[in-house]
């Protein structure tokens, strides 16, 4: 639970006894803040206070198990301010003792006062719903408020601040109490209960004034280029634009028109990418409003719980992927580093220009899909029979059954198969039954004619069917026949019957067992990898440059080249573009130009000498690279073929990596660069890796130095 106001953030229930080494800068947004905390007792309690050090100067700190007081001045005005963060105990008597302690603090110092947090008490009966109202507790709390003269702002956003037991128990136990001086100084301040997405408490936001920063500026981010449809939207908008007028006005209007189309496309894309989370947020907000005036019915309570679960699952995936991102760029929970490449690019396959790290959300979907596949393939297993007994109720007409009255893992699996869309089709559409003897494939409910079921193709006849769960062998062949409640009569029914007869006549049963085919694979075989590949293939990667990785050098060299070709390594140019302070722009190697990827590897005097020696050693004609991309594709243009070309590609990659290492040693250790030593390092590392990784075991060091490799 949290309370915010005036550059101050109070957190309750930290559930940690020692936070001295925790990095709060990620929560605050920068390092210009102060922090004090009270540790928890076991897993109970714990208080944290964070504040903007440019606004507050606190010089008095009072710590108690149940409250944390900070006193000081507001910079610029010199006004004295006192803030108390509260996490009250459960017992009525213990709370009354706490009220006395806080009252003593309030009387001990002058100035502005604000007491905020979880008071574990309500003032009136209407502030509690679904649980017992304790008159003695409320009376003690009201008496404390009257004695101290503190006041409350009217709260907006929600009637209650604590929601428990799936919405059955509601209460207003979190509040902000201020002194009359505080209230008179900011009479128009607004207290708002924010939505409770991941907690049973609503965060409280106290704003001293309403700020308007004007219209948000429009920005296009490079990560948008990875999204499907971006280029098409821009091209289409440019072609559709029409305007008669002066050229400069036409250009301005055209850019504004394209910008408007991009905004619309981005909004739609975000809605699609986070459709499930957005729907969950809408449902939670709607149901929390309903809770204010009546109890939720059984269906609404189920929706509320499932929506909360969706948000928690998304939060877990985001947290785990955050750990992966920090680890990838050398950071940790205590320290952060620059994330040089967008996560969407990192998590793209290598074949389309990414790093090949799979997104956890995609892996999760693929792994859950496997259980849907196993449910159809392993229909004689005990676990399948248990699932069918629980979920395949009398009126469940789905080929992957689910009982919404039950909660659990199986419902999540079915939901993933239904809601995950690839190529405009949910994953469940990629299941197709292959009829053999027709014993296990359901005639109406399983998709065996196409990627749709006959129930969906012939809805009118399905309503007439007596045995809706019949198998294919009971409707096809010698033992076949129809079992209607009445004979089809309407034009639509007869049209569907004609289609159904043609389907049945085209099928011949054989002695082979029925099986299932996965339409996402050419051979029809299901695998987690095929689901991941299918989901990645649905995205548009046409705008990405694809680096051809060299297989015989270590991954660290390939990753370096992958970053460098995007100018995503910490050159002076890249750091300046990221507004890093104290960066000298000149090349630290030759001191003759702005240090960029292009300069450092293609036009720097040291790099040119290295390439000259590499050409002499490898017996290739001296080359000139005008860009870094020219350099990494040079092995295709020096007249080499087969293994010789593969070896030369690796030498180029190793050379770039060695130049970068030499640059770093010069910059950070003061070790001067000697071109001969750089080339020697390239040769020695190349020899070690080409023998072991390219399996050229017969190659000797002397032959390698003469570059007699064939």
Automatic annotation (TrEMBL):
Residue span, Reverse transcriptase zinc-binding domain: 526-611
Family annotation (SUPFAM superfamilies): DNase I-like
Single GO MF descriptor: RNA-directed DNA polymerase activity
Keywords: Nucleotidyltransferase, RNA-directed DNA polymerase, Transferase
InterPro entries: Endo/exonu/phosph_ase_sf, RVT-Znf
Pfam families: zf-RVT
Protein name: RNA-directed DNA polymerase, eukaryota
Organism for this UniProt entry: Artemisia annua
């Amino acid at each position: 639970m949290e309370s915010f106001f005036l550059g101050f953030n109070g957190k309750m229930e930290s559930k940690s006894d020692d936070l001295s080494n925790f990095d709060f800068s990620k929560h605050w947004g920068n390092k210009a803040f102060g922090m004090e905390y009270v540790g928890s007792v076991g897993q109970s309690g714990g208080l944290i206070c964070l504040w903007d050090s440019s606004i507050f100067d606190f010089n008095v700190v009072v710590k108690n198990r149940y409250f944390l007081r900070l006193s000081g001045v507001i910079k610029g005005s010199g006004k004295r301010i006192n803030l108390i963060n509260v996490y009250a105990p459960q017992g009525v008597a213990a709370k009354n003792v706490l009220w006395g302690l806080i009252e003593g603090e309030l009387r001990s110092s002058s100035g502005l006062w604000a007491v905020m947090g979880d008071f574990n008490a309500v003032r009136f009966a209407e502030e509690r719903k679904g649980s017992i109202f304790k008159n003695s507790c409320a009376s003690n709390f009201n008496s404390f408020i009257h004695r101290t003269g503190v006041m409350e702002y009217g709260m907006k956003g929600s009637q209650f601040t604590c929601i428990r037991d799936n919405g059955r128990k509601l209460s207003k136990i979190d509040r902000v109490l201020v002194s009359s001086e505080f209230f008179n100084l900011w009479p128009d301040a607004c207290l708002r209960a924010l939505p409770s997405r991941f907690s049973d408490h609503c965060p409280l936001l106290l704003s001293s004034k309403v700020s308007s920063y004007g219209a948000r500026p429009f920005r296009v981010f490079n990560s948008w280029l990875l999204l499907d449809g971006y280029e098409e939207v821009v091209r289409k908008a440019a072609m559709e634009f029409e305007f008669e007028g002066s050229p400069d006005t036409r250009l301005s209007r055209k850019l504004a028109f394209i910008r408007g189309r991009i905004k619309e496309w981005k909004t739609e894309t975000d809605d699609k990418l986070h459709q499930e989370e957005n729907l969950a947020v809408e449902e939670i907000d709607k149901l929390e409003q309903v809770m204010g005036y009546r109890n939720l019915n059984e269906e609404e309570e189920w929706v509320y719980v499932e929506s909360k679960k969706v948000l928690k699952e998304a939060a877990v995936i985001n947290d785990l992927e955050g750990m992966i991102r920090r680890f990838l760029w050398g950071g940790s929970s205590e320290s952060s580093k620059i994330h040089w490449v967008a996560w969407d690019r990192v998590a793209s396959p290598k074949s389309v220009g990414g790093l090949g790290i799979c997104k956890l959300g995609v892996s999760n979907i693929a792994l859950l899909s496997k259980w849907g596949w196993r449910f159809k393939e392993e229909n004689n297993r005990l676990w399948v029979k248990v699932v069918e007994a629980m979920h395949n109720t009398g009126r469940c007409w789905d080929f992957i059954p689910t009982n919404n009255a039950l909660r659990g893992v199986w419902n999540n699996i079915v939901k993933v198969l239904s809601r995950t869309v690839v190529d405009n089709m949910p994953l469940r559409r990629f299941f197709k039954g292959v009829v053999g003897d027709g014993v296990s494939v359901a005639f109406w409910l399983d998709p065996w004619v196409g990627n749709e079921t006959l129930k969906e193709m012939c809805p009118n006849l399905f309503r007439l069917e007596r045995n809706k769960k019949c198998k294919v062998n009971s409707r096809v062949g010698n033992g076949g026949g129809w079992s209607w409640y009445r004979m089809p009569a309407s034009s639509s029914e007869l049209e569907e019957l004609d289609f159904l007869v043609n389907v049945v006549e085209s099928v011949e049963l054989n002695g082979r067992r029925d099986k299932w085919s996965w339409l996402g694979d050419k051979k029809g075989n299901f695998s987690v990898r095929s689901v991941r590949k299918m989901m990645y293939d649905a995205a548009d990667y046409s705008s990405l440059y694809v680096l051809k990785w060299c297989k015989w050098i270590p991954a660290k060299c390939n990753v370096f080249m992958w970053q460098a070709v995007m100018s995503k390594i910490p050159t002076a140019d890249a750091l300046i573009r990221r507004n890093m302070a104290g960066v000298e722009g000149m090349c630290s190697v030759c001191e003759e130009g702005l240090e960029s990827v292009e300069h450092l590897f293609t036009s720097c005097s040291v790099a040119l000498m290295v390439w000259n020696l590499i050409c002499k050693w490898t017996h290739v004609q001296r080359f000139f690279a005008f860009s870094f991309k020219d350099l990494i594709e040079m092995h295709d243009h020096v007249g080499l073929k087969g293994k010789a070309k593969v070896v030369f590609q690796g030498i180029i990659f190793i050379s770039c990596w060695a130049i970068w290492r030499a640059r770093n040693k010069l910059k950070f250790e003061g070790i001067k660069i000697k071109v001969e030593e750089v080339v020697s390092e390239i040769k020695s590392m190349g020899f070690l890796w080409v023998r072991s990784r390219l399996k050229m075991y017969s190659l000797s060091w002397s032959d390698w130095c003469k570059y007699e490799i064939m």
